[in-house]
Each structure stands twice: as C-alpha cells, then as structure tokens.
Amino acid sequence: MPNKRARLLVVLVVLCGFLTVAGARPASADTLTDSLSFDDTPLTVQNGRFVDGNGREVVLRGYNVSGETKLAENKGLPFASVADARKSATALRALGGGNSVRFLLSWAYAEPVKGQVDTTYLANATAQMRAFLDAGIRVYPDFHQDLYSRWLFNSGSWYTGDGAPAWAVALGNYPAESCGICIMWGQNITQNGAVKAGQYDFWHNRYGLQDSFLATAQKTMAYLKANLATEEFAGVVGFDPYNEPYAGSYDSGQNSRTWERDLLWPFYVKFRARMDAAGWTDKPALVEPNLFWNGNVSKEEGGLLDVGTLGSRYVFNTHFYDQKAISGILMWGNASDGQYVGDFGTVRDRASALGTTAVVSEFGHPLNGSTAGKAPTVLKAMYQALDSRVKGANWWSTPAGSGPVLSGTQWQWDLYNGRHHELMNDNPGKVMTSGDAWNDEDLSAVKLDDSGTAVLRQDSRLLDRVYPSATSGSTVAFTYEDRSRDGSTTLTWNPVPSSLPNVSSLVGSGQYAVLVWRSGSGSAPTELHLPASFPTAATTVVSDLATVYGPPPYTSSTPVGAAVEPGGTGSRRLLLTDSDSGVLHYALVTNGATSPSASVLSAAKSELATWTVQKFG
User: Fold this and answer.
1) Which residues on adjacent β-strands are paired with residue 431?
2) Which end of the chain is more exposed for a tag (fewer CB within 10 A), N or C?
3) Residue burial 11-29, b: 16+ Cβ < 10 Å; e: rest
C-alpha cells in the first residue's frame, strides 16, 4: 500500500474516536465464569491452523447468528434485546454444543445515511455480541448481504434482499427488479437485472460505494475494539468482510477467475488495511471466494487461485450447500456415508495451497418444504466431512488420510424461527411469520417453544457433537459416530470393525469419538467438547494416557479429567493432559458402556494401541 494511503488510514482511525460512547467497557474485566488458566486467549493463524495463546490447535464449531439480521423487524440486529441474545447464547452452548458464532451485521443499518454511522446500532450490536463472548463463545462478525439490498425490490415482489443501504440503491437508478421464472431465491443473483447491476457497481466502486462500505467497516471495527473489554475482544476471532461475493456481470474478456484476481482480492487487501487501522492487526480477515467456486450445480472457476499465499493474516472462508439435494430433482435419494468428503477435502486443499486455515462459515439444508426429508442425512454427511476427509466405512482402515478437522458454522441459529413479524419489503399486506421469514427459507436449528424456552428443531445427537476444540500439538486423525436419526432409523455410518472386538463391545450401540494426535511442547491439555448425551459419570475414555469410566474432575496432574466449559452455561469438556512432545497419543471417548470391567477396558486399550501402531507407525 502506498505510504500516502497508509497515512490517510491513520487519520481516519483517529477521527473515528468520536464513536466511543459514554459508558464504554473498561480496558480489563474479570475472566469468564468457569474459565481455567489456559482459557480465553486470542486466536491467531499458524502453520495452517487456528492456534490459541497456549499453542493449541483450535477448531471452531457453531452457528450463524442470525438470519434475523436480514430482516427489518429488529432493525438489522440479530435479537430484539440483550436478554434474548443471552438466552440464545446459553442455548447455543448448552444445547447446540457450539463454541463460536458468525455474528451478522447490516451495512444498511450501520450507515443509514451516506457518511453517517449509526452509533446506536453499533452500541446495540456490541451489547448483543457481548452476550456470546461472556458465554465463552468466540465471535467473528460478518457484514452480510444477499441479493445486494432489500431496497432493490418492490413491495409486491416475490423476493427480497439485504445488505446495501437505501441511499446506495438510489444512486444507481437501477431497472425494475425481476427474476423471471425463478424457483429459488438464489437465482436472482444471476438472473435479476437490478441485483446484477447493484453488485457490479459495488465491485467497480461506482458512486464511491465501496469506499463508503470500507469507511463504515473501519468505524465499526474501531467501535468494537473501543467498547469491548480486553478479555472480550480476545474472543473476537477476526472479521468476514463480505458475504457470498459475486461479480453481478463480467466485463468484456473477464471471467470468474480474473474477477477474483482483479476486483475481489484488491477489495480484501483494502479491507485488511482498514482492520489494521482500526486496531485489528493481530486478527485475520476471513475472506470468501466467488460463491459459486465449489457449487455442485452452479459452478464457476475460483477459490482465490491467483492471489498467491494468504498466510496468517487471512483465512480461507467458504460456504457449502448441496444444490442438487436442495433442488429435489438432481438428487432423488438421501445423502449417504462419505457424500461430501470430496467437497470438503477440496476446501482443505485450497486452504493448504493458500498457506492458511479454512472455515466453512455456512452449510445446512432446509427443514421445511419438499426436500426437508433429506436434512438428517445431508447434515450428518456434512458434519462427517468437517470431521474427516475419509468416509465412515473406510475410516478405521485408513485413518491417516483424515486431514485437519475443519471449523464450521451451520446456517443458522434463529431464536425467532416461526414467530417472526416481518413486513416483506415494507409491505403491511405481506407479513411474514413462518420459518426464517426470508424468501421462504427455514433452516434454523433452534426455536422458542410456547413457554419461551429455546429448543432444538434437529436431532440433538447430530448437533451437540464431540469435537476436538483445542489440541495440544497437532491432530493426526479424528472421527465421531453420532448415531443421529433419520426419523426412527439410527444412522450408523462408522461402525467399529470386528477386528477390534473389545472396542466394539465397549462402544455397543452408543456414540463414540476417536482422536489421534501428536503432542506439542505446551502444558495446556487437549480438550474435547462433551455433549449432553455424554454424562460425565457415564463417559468412558480409553487412552494411552489413562483409561477411566466416569472421568474425575480436571487437575493439571490428572491425565484424563472433566470440567465445565468457560462461560457459565453448564456445558462440559474432556481434558487430556500429556507431558511429552512429538509423541503419538490416542483416545476413544464413548457413552456406550455401563460400568465396564477393568478387563474389558484393558483389552480395548490393547486393541487400540496395536491399531495405532499399525495405522500410524
């Protein structure tokens, strides 16, 4: 970046000082409820992984909070109140097993008047974000958009959008919006002339649109930095600059790949500079490629192929939806074992080639409509592919091919699912209440029951999962058999093979996870999230470190122990402590056994030890 531009950015961040409001949080605060000495450190990107301050590999799992931001009913905020945000955060941790959220923000509400940032909106968004940080949940904000802007759509339209402010649309004098014969809202991206023109203008910075967005983003980040306590800000992972970028239309001689290189990537470089100027230097930008780069129906070449090495200042951030399954036509049956290991393997490979880590910041499937019956298998296959790049039927025979465990946030976690009151495109004659209240979508994993209690809409076995939230060293292989259900059918895609009879007997019909890792030089333990279906007193751990039924409370001298997760939500974790470096370790965690005998535990340990040597050397 030229020195002149850099000096201008410094001036801008100084001018942003007016955004700090009275009553800002102090520079320091008490540590999180239930936190231990090794908790709550900032994350960085090192050697292609998220790493905490103790040198542990971190996996982020959680949800998008939330599609409510797309709506006008709560003025572009995820929640109607901070109390609702706290309720949502507690449920997300305790019921959904999440340790992170992608926190949606709205450009339209952050800058409702050109050049004027709404500090009331930023204050409310910060307070709601704080509810998640205080629950021990890491956050990465996202300036969200879909179909560019709601103000492109007329009051009687079948569809709506979100993102750009009304003033940005007014500048463009866009044609009347029309998608023609569109079965799904996403077709507007490539078929609606108004949407295409708005996207095109943004990427070409017509009317200074991109400059305005970047200035607002910087002021937003400066505000968050100034108004979150030091410990809270440590829980902010980074920033997702722009949801699902698309060119709108290509210039003569341009294609998707050159558009990424010549327009999208320079935008991210500018955004990265704004992060630095706002005090986010040590946090990565979670950058998304062309949204169609990995589509399995609509597909365009991309994936940031021509931007060189991203390194530690960026994260490769992508989405994945099974367009064939959602269509209801191109995939007739359900998803099966290993359905998406190739797709998610491509994500791993692309991140590795870029010299960074990856996060799948959106994935999911509709829970209502003609294809909703596919959801149990589609989601199970997606989580399976996040865990390992080896299908269940092959995992025990070829575990070394697992690859890194991917971070991911499911779409979505909407507390108001089915209880909205959204005037679609400000039309009082079109009040949306059902589902997500946005373009007939219905993907939320949660809702409120009639008593106002948060309840899951999907199988808890699927959502509340064992996963290695922090690995002391490097993960070599991981798998989790969740035994989630498709109706009354229990889905078992990764049975323990008959060659391990004692392990198989120990697991029985229960859920189980296996983690193989190579120890590092740090003293903090390896952590796995314990779902509610794994009561501490009924959890069995078979590891080279120790073999126990009902892990004892964690201490630094306890090889296998249990503790609550930070944040005061009552969620729990398993902690595995080694005292070496560069040594291969394994751990089987299951809820399938009832008071197993010492002989059975010993036999299972012997089988796993032999298997580990055979498969990993």
Assistant:
1) 423
2) C
3) ebbeebeebeeeeebeeee
- 457: exposed, middle or buried (C-beta count within 10 Å: 0-12, 13-18, 19+)? middle
Residue 469 token pair: 């939230």
Count CB neighbours of 402 within 10 A.
Answer: 20
- Assign 1 a pLDDT band (cuts: 50, 70, 90): very low
The domains of the chain, with CATH numbers, are 57-415+427-463 (3.20.20.80), 467-614 (no CATH)
**Alpha carbons 106 and 108: distance in angstroms, whole number:** 5
Q: Is 493 left (phi over 0), alpha (psi -120 to 50) or beta?
A: alpha
CA distances from 168 to 152, 172, 386 (A): 10, 7, 38
- Residues, the chain: 617
Residue-by-residue DSSP string for 100-143 = EEEEEE-HHHH-SBTTB--HHHHHHHHHHHHHHHTTT-EEEEEE
CA distance 504 to 255: 53
Could you tell me what percent of the chain has a pLDDT over 70?
95
Q: DSSP letter at 253?
A: T
> Averaged over 453-461, what is the pLDDT?
98
Question: In the chain, what is the greatest distance between 2 CA atoms, to the nearest angstrom?
Answer: 77
Write down the pLDDT at residue 29: 52
For residue 604, the model assigns a pLDDT of: 98
- What is the arithmetic mean of pLDDT over 513-540? 97
pLDDT, average across residues 257-272:
98
Whether 470 contacts 520, CB under 8 Å: no
Map 306-336 to HEC letters. CCCCCHHHEEEEEEECCHHHHHCCCCCCCCC
Collect all residues with Cβ–Cβ distance below 8 Å to 362 and sequence separation of at least 6: 64, 102, 319, 320, 321, 409, 410, 411
Q: Of all helices (H) and strands (E), which one includes residue 610?
A: helix 598-616
Query: What pLDDT, on the 0 to 100 scale, is given for residue 514?
Result: 98
Q: What is the DSSP string of 541-609?
A: EEESS-EEESPPBP-TT-SEEEEEPTTSS--EEEEE----SS-EEEEEEES--SS--HHHHHHHHHHHH
Half-sphere exposure of 413 (CA within 13 A, CB side): 31
pTM for the model: 0.95
Residue 63 pLDDT > 90, yes or no? yes
Determine the Cα–Cα distance for residues 209 and 214; give it in Å rounded to an integer: 9
CA angle 181, 186, 190 (to 5 degrees): 70
What is the Cα–Cα distance from 94 to 488, expressed in whole angstroms?
A: 24
Whose tokens are 């009879």? That residue is 501
Which phi and psi angles does 587 have, rounded to 5°? -155, 130
Pairing of strands 61-65, 407-410: parallel
β-pairing, 560-564 vs 431-432, is unpaired
Average pLDDT of span 217-245: 98
